[in-house]
Amino acid sequence: MSAANRAAALFADEHGGAASAVWSAPGRVNVIGEHTDYNDGFVLPIALPHRTAVAIRPRPDRLFSVATLGSDGRLHRSPAVTTEELSPGNPSGWAAYPAGVAWALREAGFTLGGADLVVVGEVPTGAGLSSSHALECAVALALLDTVHQAPGEPDALSLGEIARLVQRAENDFAGAPTGLLDQTASLACTAAHALFFDVRSGESEQIPFDPRSVGLELLVIDTRVKHSHSESGYGQRRQGCERAADLLELKALRDVAIGDLAATLPNLPEELRPLVRHVVTENDRVLTTVDELRAGRYAEIGPLLTASHASLRDDYRVSAPELDLAVDSALEAGALGARMIGGGFGGSAIALVPVADRPDIERAVRSAFERQHLTAPRLFTAVPSAGAGRDL
Ligand code: GAF
């Protein structure tokens, strides 16, 4: 059963009667363009088939209640608070993600009534696949629907505006200083495409991306090493980039042209140079990847993925031994390219693999983990899927 149908059924059990709507939003895999979003740069994500669904029904009072299906198969209920009572820290824990969205909408001037929400998520959590943004985007759309602002309504907010509201929830309520990549991917990706998104201009283009049509697959390797953007070195990397841009008197590192990189680096303190080198070369790799995909040259993006990983590992220093192992073992077994994805310090890697070689590559990655006595990784194919929408 789909996440949406399960959310609808659980809603009926929990609250009696039907939900008024069910919205869902997917997790994402970023093909390339990592740690470029908060530098005003370029990203190229796809949406996963894994979705988080939110069944909703407005309440006559002002209470905001959320129940989520846990991995233990039970519903976990957040303490019900009124929408007026929501403030960063109240509620905390997992409930901060849905509550933060209601708070951000309220802060943006929407008059929200109370609502009951039931959440069913199938995006693996802590795996760098953006489960928190899938949840936040689905909640945002469900709540906006209650005030006639969901996509499709007359004068509705644009997807870009919704993405910024979700970003505010994540940054100021949940306390994770993340950029715009994940919510934009979850909201705006379409099936069989990658989304080429220019964070500075807000412009995006759907790039046809269907690896299976050329005998390839994008394999996700979830290392099972959990990560968290509010606790990892993510914020510190972000501050380093902002400091470098300030010292260079630029709005953002996006403004360093690849051709000026060598001349620019000596003007910076030594510890900031690798950060800048990563961001500038990564933006360039996104542009080259888009060119290759537009020309249908899928295999050519392999080396770009691998170069991205080396840059994230050596310059940006956000990889982890398990991510390096996933990438190295996949490459040794015949992947055309591989890299860690997302914020790093754990989570997942991707590998571009010929369909025919996938069983061997999968076996090689699994035995590499086994030899090092690591938790078995979870492997699956990332099929470029649809973005968020209303299911029921
Ligand atoms: C995380 C963040 F949420 C994104 O905004 C982005 O910075 C990414 O890490 C790194 O590219 O997923």
From TrEMBL:
Domain GHMP kinase N-terminal, first and last residues per copy: 97-187
SUPFAM superfamilies: GHMP Kinase, C-terminal domain, Ribosomal protein S5 domain 2-like
Domain GHMP kinase C-terminal: 291-370
GO molecular function: ATP binding; galactokinase activity; metal ion binding
GO cellular component terms, A-Z: cytosol
Biological-process GO terms, alphabetical: galactose metabolic process
Record-annotated Galactokinase N-terminal domain positions: 10-58
EC number: 2.7.1.6
Classification via InterPro entries: Galactokinase, Galactokinase_CS, GalKase_N, GHMP_kinase_C_dom, GHMP_kinase_C_sf, GHMP_kinase_N_dom, Mevalonate/galactokinase, Ribosomal_Su5_D2-typ_SF
Alphabetically ordered keywords of this record: ATP-binding, Carbohydrate metabolism, Cytoplasm, Galactose metabolism, Kinase, Magnesium, Metal-binding, Nucleotide-binding, Transferase
Matches recorded under NCBIfam families: gal_kin
Family designation: Belongs to the GHMP kinase family. GalK subfamily.
Alphabetized PANTHER family for the sequence: GALACTOKINASE-RELATED (PTHR10457:SF7), MEVALONATE KINASE/GALACTOKINASE (PTHR10457)
Protein name: Galactokinase
Organism annotation: Saccharopolyspora phatthalungensis
